[in-house]
Amino acid sequence: MHPCHPIKAYDIRGHVDDVTPELARTVGEAFAYLAKAEKIVVAHDMRPTSPVLADAFTAGVSTTGTDVIALGLASTDQLYFASGTLHLPAAMITASHNPASDNGIKLVGPGASPIAQDTGLEDIHTYLHTGRLPGQSHPAQAPASAGHVYSADLHQAYTSYLRGLVELDGIRPLKVAIDAGNGMAGHVLPDLLEGLPLDIVPLYFELDGTFPHHDADPMNPANLTDLQAAVVGSGADLGIAFDGDADRCFILDERGAPIPPCALLAWMATRLLARKPDSTVVHDLLTSAGTIEAITEAGGTPVRSRVGHAFVKLAMEAHGAALGGEASGHYYFGDFWHADSGPLAALHVLNAVGHSVQPVSQATAPFRRYASSGEVNTRVTDAPAVIRAVEEAFEERGFIDRLDGLSVSLGSGCWFNLRPSNVDPVVRLTAEAPTDQAMSELRDEILELIAGADGATAYVPGLSE
């Protein structure tokens, strides 16, 4: 039915020429049959094509006789809130941090439970091509009457819920520069921050899915330059940047320097563990060893997870974790259905800064213990062959595991992970060592091996899942 479809490992995402209303309608129909729920929640972001896709998805759901609760404009974590409080499956029309030319669909089960390739997306893929879910011998028959569509406004309930999770009474006055990136953070933050002792320097709060100022991807340093200038120019205590659907946030210190997400996770974890000793904190396998050390030193239990929101959420549920995080800037909260929320992470950061006499750079310094390469992407023609070649080169030099791609621990604080992208012909390298020189030497050695195995020399910054 759809020979060119953009189903990925964790969501449906791609160019608007591929993410069409026809596709959205069929995915909505398949999701309704898969979810077997009386109602499904649907919301969308500010991209120009999102309302049309939301309407098409809703139409597909309603053709099965399933009712739809339509939230309209919402951030992704607002959709998670709706799924959690109503205990219903839900769909978010968004392409997250992707450029304006893209759009997509994120799906979750009741209670914001993750739906990924192995937990539903592959079944939807089958439906797109055959008109039936796995196990169905015949295409499903439409009911005699369509489902109803109900509008709902949970904005204030979401705001109250998040504010109730973080103690912000008594924080000191702060000047905060915030770059909403013309994304959904501009929709949720004004009410969420109202009444706090904050002098806000706002950048790009206007909802505009064409992203006229910069892409809403704060992992790309080029998209942080305006915020850095605002922090330094205004003398702000910190800066906060959000991605397009506001499920991630990035923090700049008072000098405009980005705080590594791993250091921020460590800071949040140690503050959590001071209140709730013996808590479990889930981290992805790209997380700095310094973060894992800090969690252990504070009396917590670190649990390692594969990269990706579905895996982190499942690990958090399995271990009853209070906090989780990824090196990509996603932060997950046990009291938020184990889901990720950029605004909630920002509130926790404001709590930490507001109760600290130290500037952000000093408060986070103890958690930046190792030098990291960040994610270095290389376009290759045969990712499995490249990874095998690197493994052979290191099999006698360190401990190897295959939880997610190839991870090698070399001792003395040196390690690396090399994994294939789920969406691009790319391998992704993250290397860490105690010093910049040792990290650079390790990184460059692996990149030379990659090039030698595949003839690959083109490093591709900014690609992310």
UniProtKB/TrEMBL annotation:
GO terms for biological process: carbohydrate metabolic process. Its cofactor is Mg(2+). Residues 8-124, 158-256, 264-368 form the Alpha-D-phosphohexomutase alpha/beta/alpha domain. InterPro entries: A-D-PHexomutase_a/b/a-I, A-D-PHexomutase_a/b/a-I/II/III, A-D-PHexomutase_a/b/a-II, A-D-PHexomutase_a/b/a-III, A-D-PHexomutase_C, A-D-PHexomutase_C_sf, Alpha-D-phosphohexomutase_SF. Keywords: Isomerase, Magnesium, Metal-binding, Phosphoprotein. Residues 375-448 form the Alpha-D-phosphohexomutase C-terminal domain. One of its GO terms (molecular function) is metal ion binding. It comes from the Bacteria. Belongs to the phosphohexose mutase family. This is Phosphomannomutase/phosphoglucomutase. It comes from Streptomyces triticiradicis. The lineage of its organism: Bacteria, Bacillati, Actinomycetota, Actinomycetes, Kitasatosporales.
